[in-house]
Amino acid sequence: MSGAEARSSPSPRGRGLGGGGGAASLAPSPQPPPARGGGVFSSPPLSLAPVADFLSTTWGRVLARLVLALILLAMWEYLPSADLRFWMSGPVEIVARLWSWILDGSLWENVGATLLAMSLGYAIGSGVGIALGLLFGLMPRLHRVLSPYIAALYAMPKIALAPLFVIVFGIGLESKVVLVAITVFFLVLNSTLDGVRNVDRDLTRALALMGATRFEVIGKVLVPATLPWIFTGMRIAVRYAFTNTLLAELIASNSGIGFMIEYYSGVFDATGTYAAILVLVIMSVGLTEILTQIEAKMSHGRAH
Fold first, then answer.
1. Which alpha helices (H) appear in 56-90, and where do they start and end?
2. What percent of the chain has pLDDT over 90?
3. Over the stretch 267-281, which tens digit does the pLDDT of each residue have?
4. How does DSSP classify residue 29?
5. What is the residue-wise DSSP string for 166-210?
6. Class of 97-303 in CATH
7. Backbone angles phi, psi at 210, to 5 degrees
């Protein structure tokens, strides 16, 4: 090979990528960084903070509960099949039945019967329970004599006495009032006795030494000291009074919300049964709200 041919032949290193020669020609070229979020169709992440902030407000909670209720009612109205609809009446039919009860006055009659039995039994049971609780506090020997009988009656489930009361007093108002009164009586009695036991004995002795009569000791020391305990027992007894009134109506009655539930379920009227249960739920929620407000006011009064 001549010198001219040697000079004109390309070098093997000159055939690399780019023809740049050496190690620099083999280095990869820099690439742009990949796009975040999946390329051209990426979107910024959604933030749930505004939704959480809205739900933390009063209106947000109300709106969320309303939307949830509407969804559940829509599912109840449209999802059940025709065969299942015989056992699960729709919300529209239930509201229509409830409206017919309002128009013909049967709803108010039965609600009034339930509230009347509950109120009378609650008043009688509370009054007798407070009176005997204070009497046993003033006469501990009498309480020690009667305590085994009181404990035995208190331990027995009161609803077991409902059939006996129906036999003795009939299916009218009297049997329900007696059942509620006995239930409330034991609850208020025990609360009153607990309050009497926690009275400061030194204070009563000091008043007696200063010449106070027994009635003055009762009015100025015993009753004020036991009032918080009495109110606690009465507050607890309200729920038991409502429950036992409904149970008595379910067992044997001719009026009341429990009677309506028993009657319509006995004739396989699902619409009437659900409507009566709806009235019961509304009454329970209203009673619970009233008790909550009373408890809040009493707690606020004791704090000040």
1. 58-78, 82-85
2. 25
3. 888 899 999 999 988
4. P
5. HHHH-SSHHHHHHHHHHHHHHHHHHHHHHHHHTS-HHHHHHHHHT
6. mainly alpha
7. -85, 5
